[in-house]
Amino acid sequence: MSPDVIVIGAGAIGTSIAYQLAKAGVRVTVVDRGQVGGGATGASAGMIQINPDRRTPTALTALEAESARLFPALTAELRERTGMDVGYRPLPLLHLALHAEEEPSLRAHRAWQADHGVAVAWLDRTAALDLEPSLNPDVRGALHYPNDYQLMPLAFAQALARTAVDLGATVREGTGVDRLLTEGDRVVGVAIGDERLHAGEVVIANGAWASSWSQTFHVPIPIRPVRGQMVALRTIGTTLRHAVSSFEGYMLTKADGTTYVGTTLEEAGYDARPTAAGVAGLLALAPRLVPRLADATLTAAWAGLRPGTADGRPLIGRIPGWQGSVIAAGHFREGILLAPITGELVVDLLAGRQPRLPVDDVDPGRFLVRAA
Fold first, then answer.
1. What single-letter DSSP state applies at residue 50?
2. Do 61 and 123 belong to one domain?
3. Helices in the chain by DSSP H: which ranges?
4. What is the pLDDT of residues 133-185, one digit of tens each?
């Protein structure tokens, strides 16, 4: 039996969509050329943070806040259905001012965020070191975000996929889509080698590779890969109790005691290799934030390709000029954070309902104008 919906991409976004569709009784098939969570999702740090600034549209901040609110119930349901603990835990953030010239901008940022409902406080040096004694003792102060969280992103995507399958979905890993099937201005399915898989709707959720469908839709899809490198360190001693960041990068300790350090922002095309220069930069950053990490052991290095857009906002909505197609991609560094709400929004769109939150700020129509 043909599915009602085909989802291309099995990262956090694609699996969240599949889970919500299956939960709604929709027959859904997810296809991915790799493994569940094997792309940008599995390469991410899994931090769940809301950190808007003056450039962040109010409606996007509302989506972030609502998505963050959904995590406790969602992760509890995933655990009940699958037995998987996806590592959803509190992880307060300390953003450090290490130099005098950084203080004014951080204080101004805190004031703006506090005025816009973000729970954030300015800590002086003593207070910051009281919270996280292993910080660089030269720290001048820090922004403290007490309500942030983290999870294990690969486990999160796998739990979503497993729950979707339990609810009737099909997940096909190692299945590359060669092209979209179209009839006039309607997308009617996908071609997988010699196989033709038809569906009433196709959801484009394959992250940095979403632009590969530009030719089919006769319009450039402005999503590009932005490489982010990370390293993992092991150290003897007390683990970090907070995520620690600066203008240069961040670090956090995962449940297994490994400390992740990230991340680079590189326009390197579809090259997902960690490089000597990128790894060296991260290894130099670690002891600047936490000096004892100078003696840590490097255990892994990897890179992921985040799906970036020109304005830093994802594309979630119908593709203008086409029926039977929705895009949910371009989440850049917020794929984990926005996964729950993206799943709900796509279900609303596919059902023909008005999404329960405004989506104008993420409407693909701001970029996609079909050529005549």
1. -
2. no
3. 12-23, 40-43, 58-82, 103-115, 125-131, 153-166, 214-217, 276-289, 335-350
4. 999 999 999 999 999 999 999 999 999 999 999 999 999 999 999 999 999 99
User: What is the per-residue pLDDT across 253-271, written as a single tens digit (0 to 9) for each?
Assistant: 998 899 999 999 999 999 9
Closest by CA to 75, choosing from 89, 64, 66, 86, is: 86
Range of the domain at 206: 5-83+152-222+311-366
Q: Give the CATH number for residue 230.
A: 3.30.9.10
Residues 14, 132, single domain; the answer is no
Are 322 and 302 contained in the same domain? no
Query: For residue 372, is pLDDT > 80?
Result: no
Question: What's the pLDDT tens digit per position in 273-306?
Answer: 999 999 999 999 999 999 999 999 999 999 999 9
Strands 201-204 and 325-329: parallel
Please work out, in degrees rounded to the nearest 5, the angle formed at the alpha carbon of residue 228 by the alpha carbons of 260 and 11: 90
Are residues 190 and 269 located together in one domain of the fold? no
Q: What is the pLDDT of residues 30-76, one digit of tens each?
A: 999 999 999 999 999 999 999 999 999 888 999 999 999 999 999 99
Dihedrals φ, ψ of 284, to 5°?
-75, -30
Q: Assess whether 237 and 333 both reside in one domain.
A: no
Report the CATH number at residue 170. 3.50.50.60
Is 371 contained in some domain?
no
d(CA 263, CA 153): 16
Task: Please state, in angstroms and rounded to a whole number, the distance separating the CA atoms of residues 336 and 9.
Answer: 14
Give the chain's domain count: 2
Element (H, E) at 98: none
User: What φ, ψ does residue 255 adopt, rounded to 5°?
Assistant: -60, -25
The phi-psi region of residue 174 (left if phi > 0; otherwise alpha if psi is between -120 and 50; otherwise beta) is left
| Contact residues for 266 (Cβ-Cβ < 8 A; gap 6+) | 226, 227, 228, 229, 278
Which residue is it, tokens 């290490």?
A: 98
Please spell the DSSP secondary structure of 19-49, one letter per residue.
Answer: HHHHHTT--EEEE-SS-TTTTHHHHS--EE-
Residue 300 and residue 217 share a domain: no
| Total-model pTM | 0.96
Q: Judge if 182 and 275 occupy the same domain.
A: no
